[in-house]
Amino acid sequence: MLLLALSFVSTAAFAQKASLWFEDRDGDKHGNPDVSILSINAPPGFVKNSNDCNDDPFKRGKSFYPKAKEPCNYDDFNCDGFIAHCAFPPEPQPIPPQQDVFVVTSFEPGHPFVSFGGGRDNLSNVDDIFPGLGASQSAFVQTNGYGGQKLLRAFYPKAFDFSQTMPKLWLKLRNGDKLAKLSFLVGNKNFKNFVRFNLHSHQGQQWLTDSDWLAFSVSWNLDHLSSMRLEPGMTLADLRREITDFQFQIEDNGQGPVSLGVARIGAVNETSQEFPNGVISFTFDDSWASQFHFAKPKLDQYGFPATAYVIVGFLDRPNYLTLEQLTELKQQSKWEVAFHAFDTFMHIENYTNFSEEHVERDILAGKQWLWERGFGLGQDGKHGIAHFAYPKGEFKQQGKTDVLAIIRKHFSSARTISECLRESSTPSDTHKLRVLYITAPESVEKVMQEIRAGIAAKEWIILVLHHLVENTKENAEWQISKFNNLVDLIAQEMPQVPVKTVGDVLSSSVGQQEKHSTLADFNANRERFKSHQLHAE
Description:
Layout: H1 2-17, E1 19-23, E2 36-39, E3 46-47, E4 100-105, E5 114-116, E6 120-125, E7 138-142, E8 149-160, E9 165-174, E10 179-188, E11 193-198, E12 213-217, E13 225-229, H2 236-241, E14 243-252, E15 259-269, E16 279-285, H3 290-302, E17 307-311, H4 323-331, E18 336-341, H5 344-349, H6 356-372, E19 387-389, H7 403-410, E20 413-415, E21 436-437, H8 444-456, E22 460-465, E23 467-469, E24 477-479, H9 480-493, H10 502-508, H11 519-524, H12 526-530
Parallel strand pairs: 16-17, 16-22, 17-18, 19-20, 21-22, 23-24
Antiparallel strand pairs: 1-2, 1-3, 4-15, 5-8, 6-7, 7-15, 8-14, 9-12, 9-15, 10-11, 10-14, 11-13
Helix pairs in contact: 3-9, 8-9
Protein backbone atom coordinates (compact mmCIF):
# COMPACT_ATOMS: atom_id res chain seq x y z
CA MET A 1 0.00 0.00 0.00
CA LEU A 2 2.83 2.37 0.81
CA LEU A 3 4.46 1.80 -2.57
CA LEU A 4 1.18 2.43 -4.34
CA ALA A 5 0.65 5.65 -2.39
CA LEU A 6 4.14 6.87 -3.24
CA SER A 7 3.54 5.98 -6.83
CA PHE A 8 0.26 7.84 -6.79
CA VAL A 9 1.82 10.89 -5.15
CA SER A 10 4.69 10.85 -7.62
CA THR A 11 2.31 10.59 -10.56
CA ALA A 12 0.15 13.34 -9.18
CA ALA A 13 3.16 15.61 -8.68
CA PHE A 14 4.30 14.91 -12.23
CA ALA A 15 0.87 15.73 -13.59
CA GLN A 16 0.87 19.00 -11.65
CA LYS A 17 4.25 20.13 -12.91
CA ALA A 18 4.30 18.66 -16.43
CA SER A 19 3.14 20.45 -19.54
CA LEU A 20 2.85 19.79 -23.25
CA TRP A 21 5.85 20.34 -25.50
CA PHE A 22 5.62 20.33 -29.28
CA GLU A 23 8.04 18.86 -31.80
CA ASP A 24 10.26 21.31 -33.69
CA ARG A 25 11.87 19.23 -36.43
CA ASP A 26 12.95 22.18 -38.57
CA GLY A 27 14.56 24.10 -35.70
CA ASP A 28 12.68 27.36 -36.28
CA LYS A 29 11.57 27.57 -32.59
CA HIS A 30 7.94 26.93 -33.54
CA GLY A 31 6.26 23.63 -32.70
CA ASN A 32 4.11 21.19 -34.64
CA PRO A 33 0.60 21.10 -33.08
CA ASP A 34 0.14 17.48 -34.22
CA VAL A 35 3.14 16.02 -32.35
CA SER A 36 3.42 16.67 -28.61
CA ILE A 37 4.80 15.13 -25.43
CA LEU A 38 3.98 15.62 -21.73
CA SER A 39 7.08 16.48 -19.74
CA ILE A 40 8.30 18.66 -16.87
CA ASN A 41 11.31 19.90 -18.85
CA ALA A 42 11.63 20.50 -22.58
CA PRO A 43 12.77 17.31 -24.34
CA PRO A 44 15.45 17.79 -27.05
CA GLY A 45 13.83 19.01 -30.27
CA PHE A 46 10.63 20.21 -28.60
CA VAL A 47 9.37 23.74 -27.85
CA LYS A 48 6.56 25.27 -25.79
CA ASN A 49 4.46 26.82 -28.57
CA SER A 50 2.44 24.96 -31.20
CA ASN A 51 2.00 27.61 -33.88
CA ASP A 52 4.07 26.18 -36.76
CA CYS A 53 2.27 25.55 -40.04
CA ASN A 54 5.07 23.50 -41.64
CA ASP A 55 7.57 21.63 -39.47
CA ASP A 56 9.16 19.45 -42.17
CA PRO A 57 12.69 20.72 -42.95
CA PHE A 58 12.77 18.79 -46.22
CA LYS A 59 9.62 20.57 -47.39
CA ARG A 60 11.03 24.05 -46.73
CA GLY A 61 9.63 24.03 -43.18
CA LYS A 62 12.29 26.31 -41.77
CA SER A 63 10.82 29.14 -43.85
CA PHE A 64 7.29 28.68 -42.45
CA TYR A 65 6.44 30.13 -39.02
CA PRO A 66 4.54 33.12 -37.58
CA LYS A 67 6.01 36.44 -38.76
CA ALA A 68 8.27 34.69 -41.28
CA LYS A 69 9.52 36.52 -44.37
CA GLU A 70 6.77 36.09 -46.97
CA PRO A 71 7.03 37.09 -50.61
CA CYS A 72 3.96 37.57 -52.73
CA ASN A 73 2.47 34.84 -54.88
CA TYR A 74 4.01 31.67 -53.47
CA ASP A 75 3.01 30.31 -50.05
CA ASP A 76 1.63 31.15 -46.63
CA PHE A 77 5.11 31.40 -45.08
CA ASN A 78 3.93 33.43 -42.04
CA CYS A 79 1.12 31.01 -41.11
CA ASP A 80 -1.62 33.66 -41.22
CA GLY A 81 -3.79 31.74 -43.71
CA PHE A 82 -3.37 34.38 -46.42
CA ILE A 83 -1.18 34.51 -49.55
CA ALA A 84 -0.58 37.98 -50.95
CA HIS A 85 -0.40 38.53 -54.72
CA CYS A 86 1.59 41.15 -56.60
CA ALA A 87 3.62 41.66 -59.79
CA PHE A 88 6.34 39.16 -60.53
CA PRO A 89 9.97 40.24 -60.97
CA PRO A 90 11.37 40.37 -64.50
CA GLU A 91 13.53 37.62 -65.90
CA PRO A 92 17.29 38.27 -65.97
CA GLN A 93 18.96 38.87 -69.30
CA PRO A 94 21.39 36.28 -70.71
CA ILE A 95 25.09 36.97 -71.06
CA PRO A 96 26.39 36.37 -74.62
CA PRO A 97 28.84 33.45 -74.78
CA GLN A 98 32.57 33.59 -75.29
CA GLN A 99 33.48 33.94 -78.98
CA ASP A 100 36.05 31.68 -80.65
CA VAL A 101 39.02 33.39 -82.30
CA PHE A 102 40.17 30.28 -84.17
CA VAL A 103 39.75 26.49 -84.10
CA VAL A 104 42.66 24.06 -83.97
CA THR A 105 40.49 21.01 -84.61
CA SER A 106 36.91 19.79 -84.36
CA PHE A 107 38.14 16.23 -84.93
CA GLU A 108 36.83 16.20 -88.46
CA PRO A 109 37.71 13.15 -90.62
CA GLY A 110 41.44 13.13 -91.34
CA HIS A 111 42.47 14.90 -88.12
CA PRO A 112 46.07 14.13 -87.00
CA PHE A 113 45.37 12.93 -83.45
CA VAL A 114 46.50 9.45 -82.36
CA SER A 115 46.25 7.65 -79.01
CA PHE A 116 48.77 5.77 -76.86
CA GLY A 117 48.48 3.50 -73.83
CA GLY A 118 46.23 0.63 -72.78
CA GLY A 119 42.47 0.77 -72.66
CA ARG A 120 40.16 1.75 -75.51
CA ASP A 121 39.75 4.53 -78.03
CA ASN A 122 37.57 5.73 -80.88
CA LEU A 123 39.09 8.70 -82.67
CA SER A 124 36.20 9.00 -85.12
CA ASN A 125 33.28 8.75 -82.71
CA VAL A 126 30.03 9.65 -84.49
CA ASP A 127 27.79 8.42 -81.65
CA ASP A 128 28.63 11.09 -79.08
CA ILE A 129 28.94 14.64 -80.43
CA PHE A 130 28.96 17.95 -78.58
CA PRO A 131 25.38 19.31 -79.07
CA GLY A 132 25.10 22.39 -81.26
CA LEU A 133 28.79 22.49 -82.17
CA GLY A 134 28.26 21.53 -85.79
CA ALA A 135 30.96 18.86 -85.75
CA SER A 136 30.39 15.46 -87.32
CA GLN A 137 32.41 13.43 -84.82
CA SER A 138 34.59 13.54 -81.70
CA ALA A 139 37.55 11.65 -80.21
CA PHE A 140 37.17 9.18 -77.34
CA VAL A 141 39.84 7.56 -75.14
CA GLN A 142 39.51 5.34 -72.06
CA THR A 143 42.07 4.09 -69.53
CA ASN A 144 42.44 0.41 -68.62
CA GLY A 145 41.11 0.89 -65.07
CA TYR A 146 44.24 -0.44 -63.34
CA GLY A 147 46.08 2.82 -62.77
CA GLY A 148 47.05 3.17 -66.41
CA GLN A 149 47.19 6.31 -68.48
CA LYS A 150 45.95 7.17 -71.93
CA LEU A 151 47.35 9.82 -74.26
CA LEU A 152 45.66 11.66 -77.14
CA ARG A 153 48.30 13.54 -79.17
CA ALA A 154 48.86 15.44 -82.41
CA PHE A 155 51.74 17.30 -84.09
CA TYR A 156 50.77 19.99 -86.61
CA PRO A 157 53.09 21.14 -89.44
CA LYS A 158 51.82 24.72 -89.12
CA ALA A 159 52.09 26.70 -85.88
CA PHE A 160 49.14 28.30 -84.08
CA ASP A 161 49.66 31.73 -82.52
CA PHE A 162 48.31 31.92 -78.94
CA SER A 163 50.13 35.16 -78.09
CA GLN A 164 46.88 37.08 -77.53
CA THR A 165 44.58 34.12 -76.91
CA MET A 166 44.14 31.18 -74.55
CA PRO A 167 43.08 27.59 -75.27
CA LYS A 168 39.45 26.57 -75.08
CA LEU A 169 38.51 22.90 -74.74
CA TRP A 170 35.27 21.00 -75.40
CA LEU A 171 35.39 17.87 -73.20
CA LYS A 172 33.32 15.12 -71.65
CA LEU A 173 34.62 13.18 -68.62
CA ARG A 174 33.09 9.88 -67.49
CA ASN A 175 33.69 8.12 -64.16
CA GLY A 176 35.39 11.21 -62.79
CA ASP A 177 35.36 9.73 -59.26
CA LYS A 178 38.07 7.33 -60.47
CA LEU A 179 40.21 10.05 -62.03
CA ALA A 180 43.80 10.41 -60.77
CA LYS A 181 45.19 12.90 -63.31
CA LEU A 182 43.91 14.94 -66.22
CA SER A 183 46.13 17.38 -68.06
CA PHE A 184 46.45 19.22 -71.35
CA LEU A 185 49.84 19.96 -72.92
CA VAL A 186 50.75 22.43 -75.64
CA GLY A 187 54.26 22.84 -77.06
CA ASN A 188 56.48 22.58 -80.11
CA LYS A 189 59.42 20.58 -81.52
CA ASN A 190 57.81 17.28 -80.49
CA PHE A 191 57.30 18.62 -76.97
CA LYS A 192 60.91 19.67 -76.57
CA ASN A 193 59.20 22.83 -75.29
CA PHE A 194 55.85 22.54 -73.53
CA VAL A 195 53.53 23.66 -70.75
CA ARG A 196 51.11 21.35 -68.95
CA PHE A 197 47.72 22.63 -67.75
CA ASN A 198 46.22 20.75 -64.81
CA LEU A 199 42.50 20.16 -65.47
CA HIS A 200 41.75 17.98 -62.44
CA SER A 201 39.84 19.64 -59.60
CA HIS A 202 40.44 18.12 -56.17
CA GLN A 203 37.51 19.83 -54.48
CA GLY A 204 34.38 18.05 -53.34
CA GLN A 205 32.47 19.39 -56.34
CA GLN A 206 34.29 18.56 -59.56
CA TRP A 207 34.03 21.43 -62.01
CA LEU A 208 34.05 18.86 -64.83
CA THR A 209 30.71 17.26 -64.02
CA ASP A 210 30.45 13.61 -64.93
CA SER A 211 29.09 12.61 -68.34
CA ASP A 212 28.41 16.20 -69.47
CA TRP A 213 29.87 17.93 -72.50
CA LEU A 214 31.56 21.10 -71.22
CA ALA A 215 33.39 23.96 -72.93
CA PHE A 216 35.87 26.08 -70.99
CA SER A 217 38.95 28.25 -71.43
CA VAL A 218 42.26 27.83 -69.60
CA SER A 219 44.37 30.92 -68.99
CA TRP A 220 48.16 31.15 -69.02
CA ASN A 221 48.22 31.64 -65.25
CA LEU A 222 51.42 30.05 -63.97
CA ASP A 223 49.43 28.63 -61.02
CA HIS A 224 47.50 26.52 -63.54
CA LEU A 225 50.62 24.96 -65.01
CA SER A 226 51.70 21.74 -63.31
CA SER A 227 54.94 21.71 -65.31
CA MET A 228 56.81 23.70 -67.96
CA ARG A 229 59.95 23.02 -70.02
CA LEU A 230 61.58 25.58 -72.30
CA GLU A 231 64.86 25.54 -74.19
CA PRO A 232 67.54 27.96 -72.97
CA GLY A 233 66.72 31.48 -74.06
CA MET A 234 63.06 30.68 -74.82
CA THR A 235 60.28 32.40 -72.88
CA LEU A 236 56.66 31.44 -72.39
CA ALA A 237 55.72 34.32 -74.68
CA ASP A 238 57.94 32.81 -77.40
CA LEU A 239 56.30 29.41 -77.01
CA ARG A 240 52.80 30.87 -77.19
CA ARG A 241 53.53 32.27 -80.67
CA GLU A 242 54.59 28.87 -82.04
CA ILE A 243 52.28 26.08 -80.79
CA THR A 244 52.35 22.95 -82.95
CA ASP A 245 51.93 20.10 -80.42
CA PHE A 246 48.80 19.19 -78.44
CA GLN A 247 48.22 16.36 -75.98
CA PHE A 248 45.64 15.18 -73.44
CA GLN A 249 46.81 12.85 -70.69
CA ILE A 250 44.31 10.97 -68.51
CA GLU A 251 45.05 8.50 -65.72
CA ASP A 252 42.73 6.49 -63.48
CA ASN A 253 43.25 5.67 -59.79
CA GLY A 254 43.21 1.89 -60.23
CA GLN A 255 39.57 1.55 -59.19
CA GLY A 256 38.16 1.38 -62.72
CA PRO A 257 38.44 2.99 -66.15
CA VAL A 258 38.00 6.68 -66.85
CA SER A 259 37.11 8.02 -70.28
CA LEU A 260 37.55 11.37 -71.98
CA GLY A 261 35.70 12.71 -74.98
CA VAL A 262 37.20 15.65 -76.89
CA ALA A 263 35.04 17.55 -79.37
CA ARG A 264 37.14 20.62 -80.15
CA ILE A 265 40.31 22.54 -79.34
CA GLY A 266 40.12 26.25 -80.06
CA ALA A 267 41.20 29.67 -78.87
CA VAL A 268 39.43 32.65 -77.31
CA ASN A 269 40.63 36.14 -76.49
CA GLU A 270 42.83 36.29 -73.42
CA THR A 271 41.09 39.40 -72.14
CA SER A 272 38.35 41.84 -73.05
CA GLN A 273 38.64 45.39 -74.29
CA GLU A 274 36.98 46.61 -71.10
CA PHE A 275 39.49 44.90 -68.78
CA PRO A 276 42.87 44.68 -70.55
CA ASN A 277 44.69 44.44 -67.20
CA GLY A 278 42.33 41.94 -65.61
CA VAL A 279 39.64 42.71 -63.04
CA ILE A 280 38.88 41.85 -59.41
CA SER A 281 35.52 41.20 -57.69
CA PHE A 282 34.92 40.89 -53.96
CA THR A 283 32.03 38.55 -53.19
CA PHE A 284 30.53 37.72 -49.78
CA ASP A 285 28.23 34.82 -48.91
CA ASP A 286 25.65 34.01 -46.23
CA SER A 287 24.49 37.48 -45.05
CA TRP A 288 26.92 37.87 -42.12
CA ALA A 289 26.66 41.20 -40.26
CA SER A 290 30.48 41.41 -40.26
CA GLN A 291 30.25 42.23 -43.96
CA PHE A 292 28.54 45.50 -43.02
CA HIS A 293 30.60 46.27 -39.93
CA PHE A 294 34.07 45.39 -41.26
CA ALA A 295 34.11 44.75 -45.03
CA LYS A 296 32.03 47.80 -45.95
CA PRO A 297 34.16 50.52 -44.25
CA LYS A 298 37.41 49.07 -45.59
CA LEU A 299 36.15 48.76 -49.16
CA ASP A 300 34.52 52.20 -48.90
CA GLN A 301 37.98 53.62 -48.13
CA TYR A 302 38.97 52.93 -51.76
CA GLY A 303 35.56 53.14 -53.39
CA PHE A 304 35.51 49.36 -54.00
CA PRO A 305 32.05 47.79 -54.42
CA ALA A 306 31.25 44.14 -53.72
CA THR A 307 28.63 41.49 -54.49
CA ALA A 308 26.71 40.03 -51.53
CA TYR A 309 25.09 36.64 -52.17
CA VAL A 310 22.24 36.75 -49.65
CA ILE A 311 20.48 34.02 -47.67
CA VAL A 312 17.12 35.68 -47.08
CA GLY A 313 16.24 33.50 -44.07
CA PHE A 314 19.26 34.75 -42.12
CA LEU A 315 18.42 38.44 -42.51
CA ASP A 316 17.43 40.27 -39.31
CA ARG A 317 18.72 37.48 -37.08
CA PRO A 318 21.46 37.94 -34.46
CA ASN A 319 24.95 38.17 -36.09
CA TYR A 320 23.42 38.55 -39.54
CA LEU A 321 22.63 41.53 -41.73
CA THR A 322 19.47 43.49 -41.15
CA LEU A 323 17.34 44.55 -44.07
CA GLU A 324 18.30 48.14 -43.27
CA GLN A 325 22.03 47.31 -43.45
CA LEU A 326 21.58 45.43 -46.70
CA THR A 327 19.81 48.45 -48.17
CA GLU A 328 22.65 50.72 -47.04
CA LEU A 329 25.22 48.43 -48.65
CA LYS A 330 23.37 48.78 -51.95
CA GLN A 331 22.46 52.46 -51.84
CA GLN A 332 25.49 54.04 -50.14
CA SER A 333 28.35 51.64 -50.91
CA LYS A 334 27.09 50.51 -54.36
CA TRP A 335 27.19 46.84 -53.43
CA GLU A 336 25.31 44.40 -55.60
CA VAL A 337 22.74 42.25 -53.78
CA ALA A 338 22.60 38.82 -55.41
CA PHE A 339 20.88 35.57 -54.37
CA HIS A 340 22.19 32.55 -52.44
CA ALA A 341 19.09 30.90 -50.89
CA PHE A 342 15.75 31.68 -49.27
CA ASP A 343 15.39 28.82 -46.76
CA THR A 344 18.37 28.54 -44.40
CA PHE A 345 17.94 24.77 -44.10
CA MET A 346 18.08 24.32 -47.86
CA HIS A 347 21.35 26.21 -47.89
CA ILE A 348 22.82 24.15 -45.04
CA GLU A 349 21.86 20.87 -46.72
CA ASN A 350 22.59 22.31 -50.21
CA TYR A 351 20.18 22.35 -53.11
CA THR A 352 21.26 19.04 -54.67
CA ASN A 353 19.62 17.14 -51.77
CA PHE A 354 16.14 18.55 -52.47
CA SER A 355 13.65 17.90 -55.24
CA GLU A 356 13.62 20.06 -58.35
CA GLU A 357 10.25 21.44 -57.24
CA HIS A 358 11.59 22.59 -53.86
CA VAL A 359 14.74 24.08 -55.37
CA GLU A 360 12.81 26.06 -57.94
CA ARG A 361 10.28 27.28 -55.37
CA ASP A 362 13.07 28.42 -53.04
CA ILE A 363 14.70 30.37 -55.88
CA LEU A 364 11.52 32.05 -57.08
CA ALA A 365 10.27 32.93 -53.60
CA GLY A 366 13.64 34.33 -52.54
CA LYS A 367 14.08 36.43 -55.67
CA GLN A 368 10.53 37.72 -55.28
CA TRP A 369 11.14 38.75 -51.66
CA LEU A 370 14.33 40.62 -52.52
CA TRP A 371 12.79 42.29 -55.58
CA GLU A 372 9.80 43.55 -53.56
CA ARG A 373 12.28 45.28 -51.23
CA GLY A 374 14.17 47.11 -53.95
CA PHE A 375 16.92 44.64 -54.82
CA GLY A 376 16.37 44.31 -58.56
CA LEU A 377 18.27 43.39 -61.70
CA GLY A 378 19.49 46.84 -62.74
CA GLN A 379 18.37 48.71 -65.82
CA ASP A 380 19.98 46.20 -68.16
CA GLY A 381 18.65 43.08 -66.40
CA LYS A 382 22.21 41.84 -65.70
CA HIS A 383 22.80 42.97 -62.11
CA GLY A 384 21.70 42.16 -58.58
CA ILE A 385 19.34 39.19 -58.32
CA ALA A 386 20.27 38.18 -61.86
CA HIS A 387 23.21 36.44 -60.15
CA PHE A 388 23.42 33.39 -57.91
CA ALA A 389 25.94 31.46 -55.77
CA TYR A 390 25.48 27.70 -55.28
CA PRO A 391 24.84 26.67 -51.65
CA LYS A 392 27.95 24.79 -50.48
CA GLY A 393 29.24 25.20 -54.03
CA GLU A 394 27.33 22.11 -55.18
CA PHE A 395 25.63 22.22 -58.57
CA LYS A 396 25.46 18.66 -59.88
CA GLN A 397 26.08 15.24 -58.36
CA GLN A 398 25.43 11.78 -59.73
CA GLY A 399 21.93 10.62 -58.80
CA LYS A 400 20.92 13.95 -57.24
CA THR A 401 19.01 17.01 -58.41
CA ASP A 402 20.62 18.78 -61.36
CA VAL A 403 20.75 22.25 -59.81
CA LEU A 404 22.85 23.60 -62.68
CA ALA A 405 20.04 23.01 -65.18
CA ILE A 406 17.55 24.82 -62.92
CA ILE A 407 19.88 27.76 -62.36
CA ARG A 408 20.44 28.27 -66.08
CA LYS A 409 16.71 29.05 -66.40
CA HIS A 410 16.56 31.70 -63.67
CA PHE A 411 19.88 33.58 -63.52
CA SER A 412 22.33 35.40 -65.78
CA SER A 413 25.25 33.88 -63.87
CA ALA A 414 26.06 31.49 -61.05
CA ARG A 415 29.22 31.42 -58.95
CA THR A 416 30.89 28.23 -57.75
CA ILE A 417 33.66 27.78 -55.17
CA SER A 418 35.81 25.83 -57.64
CA GLU A 419 39.44 26.99 -57.81
CA CYS A 420 40.96 24.55 -60.30
CA LEU A 421 41.02 27.11 -63.11
CA ARG A 422 40.17 30.76 -62.54
CA GLU A 423 37.90 32.91 -64.63
CA SER A 424 38.34 35.09 -67.69
CA SER A 425 36.63 38.47 -67.97
CA THR A 426 34.36 36.95 -70.63
CA PRO A 427 33.63 33.59 -68.96
CA SER A 428 33.44 30.35 -70.87
CA ASP A 429 30.41 29.34 -68.79
CA THR A 430 28.63 32.12 -66.91
CA HIS A 431 26.77 29.59 -64.77
CA LYS A 432 29.95 27.99 -63.41
CA LEU A 433 32.07 31.01 -62.49
CA ARG A 434 35.48 29.96 -61.11
CA VAL A 435 36.94 31.70 -58.09
CA LEU A 436 39.66 32.28 -55.52
CA TYR A 437 38.12 30.94 -52.30
CA ILE A 438 39.58 32.49 -49.11
CA THR A 439 39.35 30.38 -45.93
CA ALA A 440 40.72 30.62 -42.38
CA PRO A 441 44.19 29.11 -42.94
CA GLU A 442 45.03 31.39 -45.89
CA SER A 443 47.72 34.00 -45.30
CA VAL A 444 47.51 37.43 -46.89
CA GLU A 445 50.74 36.80 -48.79
CA LYS A 446 49.47 33.51 -50.26
CA VAL A 447 46.23 35.16 -51.41
CA MET A 448 48.18 38.06 -52.90
CA GLN A 449 50.51 35.67 -54.74
CA GLU A 450 47.48 34.03 -56.35
CA ILE A 451 45.96 37.40 -57.22
CA ARG A 452 49.25 38.59 -58.74
CA ALA A 453 49.51 35.42 -60.85
CA GLY A 454 45.93 35.82 -62.03
CA ILE A 455 46.29 39.49 -62.90
CA ALA A 456 49.55 38.74 -64.75
CA ALA A 457 47.44 36.34 -66.85
CA LYS A 458 44.74 39.05 -67.23
CA GLU A 459 42.16 36.95 -65.40
CA TRP A 460 38.97 37.92 -63.61
CA ILE A 461 39.76 37.27 -59.94
CA ILE A 462 36.54 36.51 -58.07
CA LEU A 463 37.33 36.53 -54.35
CA VAL A 464 34.95 34.52 -52.14
CA LEU A 465 34.67 35.44 -48.45
CA HIS A 466 32.15 34.73 -45.72
CA HIS A 467 32.45 35.84 -42.09
CA LEU A 468 35.10 38.36 -40.94
CA VAL A 469 36.17 37.88 -37.30
CA GLU A 470 38.93 38.85 -34.84
CA ASN A 471 40.06 35.23 -34.38
CA THR A 472 38.99 32.36 -36.63
CA LYS A 473 37.30 29.20 -35.36
CA GLU A 474 35.61 27.97 -38.53
CA ASN A 475 37.04 27.32 -41.99
CA ALA A 476 34.76 29.85 -43.69
CA GLU A 477 35.98 32.70 -41.45
CA TRP A 478 38.83 35.12 -42.12
CA GLN A 479 40.52 37.57 -39.81
CA ILE A 480 39.52 41.22 -40.07
CA SER A 481 43.17 42.26 -39.93
CA LYS A 482 43.99 39.99 -42.88
CA PHE A 483 41.11 41.38 -44.89
CA ASN A 484 42.15 44.97 -44.22
CA ASN A 485 45.72 44.16 -45.22
CA LEU A 486 44.58 42.45 -48.42
CA VAL A 487 42.42 45.40 -49.49
CA ASP A 488 45.30 47.82 -48.82
CA LEU A 489 47.72 45.73 -50.90
CA ILE A 490 45.32 45.45 -53.84
CA ALA A 491 44.74 49.22 -53.83
CA GLN A 492 48.46 50.01 -53.51
CA GLU A 493 49.92 47.40 -55.89
CA MET A 494 47.25 47.31 -58.57
CA PRO A 495 45.88 50.80 -59.23
CA GLN A 496 45.48 49.86 -62.90
CA VAL A 497 43.18 46.91 -62.06
CA PRO A 498 39.50 47.83 -61.60
CA VAL A 499 37.43 46.36 -58.75
CA LYS A 500 33.91 45.64 -59.99
CA THR A 501 30.78 43.77 -58.94
CA VAL A 502 29.97 40.50 -60.70
CA GLY A 503 27.15 42.18 -62.61
CA ASP A 504 29.38 45.06 -63.70
CA VAL A 505 32.03 42.71 -65.09
CA LEU A 506 29.54 40.58 -66.99
CA SER A 507 27.53 43.48 -68.38
CA SER A 508 30.66 45.47 -69.31
CA SER A 509 32.29 42.58 -71.12
CA VAL A 510 29.41 42.03 -73.56
CA GLY A 511 29.21 45.50 -75.10
CA GLN A 512 25.90 47.07 -76.09
CA GLN A 513 23.23 46.42 -73.49
CA GLU A 514 19.60 45.68 -74.08
CA LYS A 515 17.01 47.95 -72.50
CA HIS A 516 15.33 46.56 -69.44
CA SER A 517 11.58 46.09 -69.20
CA THR A 518 9.59 48.75 -67.38
CA LEU A 519 7.26 48.05 -64.48
CA ALA A 520 4.33 48.27 -66.87
CA ASP A 521 5.91 45.47 -68.90
CA PHE A 522 6.05 43.27 -65.80
CA ASN A 523 2.29 43.30 -65.36
CA ALA A 524 1.75 42.84 -69.09
CA ASN A 525 3.96 39.74 -68.92
CA ARG A 526 2.36 38.39 -65.76
CA GLU A 527 1.14 35.22 -67.45
CA ARG A 528 4.65 34.44 -68.67
CA PHE A 529 6.03 34.64 -65.13
CA LYS A 530 3.11 32.65 -63.74
CA SER A 531 4.46 29.64 -65.60
CA HIS A 532 7.28 29.51 -63.05
CA GLN A 533 4.88 28.96 -60.17
CA LEU A 534 4.69 25.53 -58.60
CA HIS A 535 1.83 24.20 -56.49
CA ALA A 536 2.41 24.26 -52.75
CA GLU A 537 2.38 20.95 -50.95
